[in-house]
Amino acid sequence: MDIISGQGLFFLFCFITSCFLIFSTTRSRRGSLQATATPPGPPRLPIIGNIHLVGKNPHRSFADLSKTYGPIMSLKFGSLNTVVVTSPEAAREVLRTQDQILSSRSPTNSIRSINHHEVSIVWLPSSPRWRLLRKLSVSHLFSPQRIEATKALRMNKVKELVNFMSESSRREEAVDISCASFITMLNIISNILFSVDLGSYASKISNGFQDTVISVMEAVGKPDAANYFPFLGFLDLQGNRKTMNVCSERLFRVFRGIIEAKIAENALRNNPKDISDSDFLDVLLDLSKGDETELSIDDIKHLLLDMFTAGTDTSSGTVEWAMAELLKNPKTMAKAQAEIDHVIGPNGIIEESDISKLPYLQAVVKETFRLHPAAPLLIPRKAESDVEVLGFMVPKDTQVLVNVWAIGRDPNVWENPNRFEPERFLGKEIDVKGRDYELTPFGAGRRICPGLPLAVKIVPLMLASLLYYFDWKLPNGVVSEDLDMDETFGITLHKTNPLHAVPVKKHALH
């Protein structure tokens, strides 16, 4: 994300090189009326602007600043103008009312380093190219028909997760919830994309995939001087370009191997593959054939990178945060388990269709999204022209951030906002599908996360399965009140120290 932490070395560098930066940070002159109409914000230092006000957790710093400067606030990071919104009303303006003007993107230096912004469904501006990729992903991955067609796959992969947990329970071993959830999501996504398993609960290779994906997310979101002073990009002062290049190439190498195998397999076929047996890569390869190809192999690799990283990291992280909150709040966990036991019975099997009968479990998931949105500032938007938001002028090319983390903890919106209380959602129609701006972890409008339909299926299914088949206890005498809930900021928000818990078998898997 285009925010930088208060690292002393970075500030020192900024001041030392200030004489070279004056021209790039000089404001263009505007009329006095327009200047007074821009959103309020804190005073700025020469050259660095407001960089000194933002620490290692920008979502928290912005939330604190908004208490002084209001729900729409101007900040300056080097040469980059930024507006941060922190209320449902302001989010509605950005994500719906002015969605078209604010639907462009502000790609970070690390994204630009691999030219990902030129072919990425996440980072492309709203354009014919973006619409093509969006249509492909919605039609062939996340349409109701495709979601239904992959239901048996999801059930099978969750069954494998339960079996792994059962083995750990038999040995009375603590499980890394983050890693286990990631492997489950990895195999769901890799089967939808390529029809292969890429993860194994017994393999360190799977951990390597998780480390690589997290490194990509951190390289996008970590401090980078070039995001604020673009001419410094070649220096790679924070090492983000190097990290992005190494980690993305590691994933591209896997994709290339799968693509080459798929092309060779298809070349041996006498008849075209039946559409019901085709995976997403089959569809993409069909579009890469002929003289007037819509996609190149390089385009396919970058599209797969989007689907692979976003699809695995965000859902598995949400499951981990949910389990952490439930272990920290044993009465809430007991209430969720009692509901599941009542609906499923003592010898049942959890199906996706059961989730609609579990309102308290659904409330637990919503409460997790409220307190721990996967992308706390969503993906940075950019104003394509001057635009008015809540009576303030947002100038062209301004980066616009929606602090959904702050909105989820706003005492003007939520009672007891820092408490984990799923009961707040019972009997209410609030959902996460982009219509209720107090709860938009997936964004809203034309740039809403295309993977939302899959995420809202698999997250509650995984969580319900973990709660139905097992009781849970913390290892090494850790008590729930002392459970560590520290977070690490990136494009996504991770639990700093992975959650470990011991599963205690409760129901057998039939």
Which key terms come to mind for this protein?
510 residues; 48% helix; Cytochrome p450; single chain; three-stranded antiparallel sheet; alpha+beta; 12 strands
Structural description of this entry:
- This protein is α+β, with helices and mostly antiparallel strands and 510 residues long.
- It has one domain: Cytochrome p450, CATH 1.10.630.10.
- It is built from 18 helices and twelve strands.
- It has helices at residues 8-16, 18-25, 32-37, 58-69, 88-97, 109-113, 128-140, 144-149, 151-170, 177-194, 204-221, 240-267, 280-287, 297-328, 330-344, 359-371, 404-408, 452-469, and strands spanning 72-77, 80-85, 104-105, 175-176, 381-382, 387-389, 392-394, 399-402, 470-473, 487-488, 494-495, 500-505.
- A five-stranded mixed β-sheet has the order 1-2-8-5-3. It has a three-stranded antiparallel β-sheet with strand order 4-12-9.
- A hairpin with a 2-residue loop joins strand 6 (387-389) and strand 7 (392-394).
- Helix 9 runs antiparallel to helix 10.
- This is Cytochrome P450 76C1.
- Its cofactor is heme.
- Belongs to the cytochrome P450 family.
- It comes from Cardamine amara subsp. amara.
- Heme binds at residue 449.
